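Researcher: Please translate sequence to structure tokens.
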Amino acid sequence: MLTKANILLICNLQLLFAYPASNWTVPGVSNVSFIVEKINAERRINAFVIINAYDTSESCLSDEDVRRLSANTTVKLLRPSSKCSNSSGDDNRELLLIRCIPENFKPELFEAMIGCSARKRDIRMLFIWNSEYATATIQSRLKLDKQQKLIFEYCAEMNLLNVIGIYRDYLSEGHFYTFSYFPDFHLERKPLSEDCFPDRISDLKGTAIRCIPDQIHPWSIVWADHNENVQISGFLTKLLQQFATRNNGTLTFPVTVVPNRFVGIQSWLPLFQNNTIDMVCGIIGSLGENPYLDESATIFLVDWIIMLPIPQRMADSEVYLYMLNSALGLFLLILLFVFSFVLTLESLLLQRHTKREGCLLFISFLTNTVLRGVIGQPSSLRFPHSVRLLKRFLYITLFVSGIFMSTFISASLQSYLTSSLRYPRINSFAELRRAGMKVKISSYEYPLLPTYFGPKSLKWLERVFTVVPSFDELQNQRINLKNRFATTIISPLWSVVSRYQSNLPQPAFYTSKDIYISKGIPIAVPIQKHSIYKKALNKMIYNAHSVGLTQLWSNQVYDDMLAAKKLNTTVNLVSRRKEQLELRDLYWLWWLYGVGVLLSTLVFFAELWYHKRSTKKANQSEENERVEQYELNMQTFRRVALRRQLRDY
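Model: Translation complete:
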């Protein structure tokens, strides 16, 4: 059957034939089948890469060994100076690299081996010395021990994790050799009964995993408690702390951590170069290839959005303009022109008019009749009984429309004046540009804009964004909720701000789904290049996702920021009563009722007193009027009697 292993073996036949036959048939060469089968039983090796010793005519493998290895597994034969393609290390999940050790070891002779390992520094390597250790002299043993230490130190310097070595007589000696990083670098001599490649990261033996927090909220939170002790928490702190605890390690911070001081890539990249830290308790996006920096598996996909302030309340003088610009104004305009046009047309059909008279008639209907009727103002309309039914129907419809529009306008005004309107929200970049609002962005984030915007968009974005030199200052302003400006923000921090705003009388900021810089940005943990912790950390991240720990820690960041006093606690929160409502809680109603009864009683007696006083004054006035009338009548009677006497005389 033509398998992948057989195809790869056929492709490398010329390399196999390039070796002299004497290299594989030297008498007395040890059979490595035992150690290889042992490793294969542990890890199920998919491919072998064999690199011969340099500048020697002898090989550490015989023809029989090569034939056994290539029976069911891919085997690739290389010279020390050959270049190994990276596909061998990337395509095969389990790869065993067998290296024949030359008599005179030099680090540059292992360049091909390092090239084969590519980025997978946890690749499994087997070093084979073409020498016997058990029967060697003391001087030979010292030389072999020195060479062994030199090789393993070089492997540790190159961050190779799984390396073992055997001598030609390993079966009779009964041991293989390796080294360990934990708790510090040391050589180990183990019996063949033990596993050749155990999970070394599973037991760090208390080794310190060196870290530094970047203090980007809410991933990494640093603050000082009441005793001035620096405390570190946050999502990534919990993740890395859990990683260290599960692997019997300790999470340490070798560099002095100062609260409220952002640590950017310019600060922690040199720490990777001089091997001061192993990873950063922070986040990083995709920055491409870097000789000192690598990244873990993706933790989250975050959105880089813009947080906008809630629009201010509209002035009372602008309410009418707002109503006219709404659907109400459009409906009012339609009614004005429709009724004016219909009434003018009806009049023109009954009686001929010139164009000038028709225009004047239309303006008269529009301003005097229809406008007053639509807004519910009184108007005087006269038409004889013989007027057509259509005209009566039009005026009745105009009257009903006026009642409806007047009621609707009054209700809208009362509603808008009771609860003040706000200016409309900004929902697109075009509206943001027209509004002239400035968006604050830190000098650390501003260079990333060309990654997400083209040259044309960047021109007008330069007029929108305002660069803030201090990242810490802008980060504090984002969660302060007192400033009235727009700012960039990542979605996890916006979730914290949004939850915090739910406790306020009204929100202070909002986001729009159409205003964002980028969505779905993969976020990972920055780690040292070729770190021995990368594979274990990635496994920890996958497990945390599968069991829901990442969701739990994400929900806890709000409480972490409250505990660190990072949120603005000076904002007045809404007090919410949780007790049951009882009758005594309504005492103020009885107080108002008593005051009302007392006032009504006083008003009642005041009205009685006023009525009695008014009645008395009225009676006295009537009596005075009767007396005056009596005197007036007597005077009139005397004058009449006097006139009669004079006439008789």
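Researcher: Any highlights?
Model: The domain at 300-311+424-523 is CATH 3.40.190 (D-Maltodextrin-Binding Protein; domain 2).
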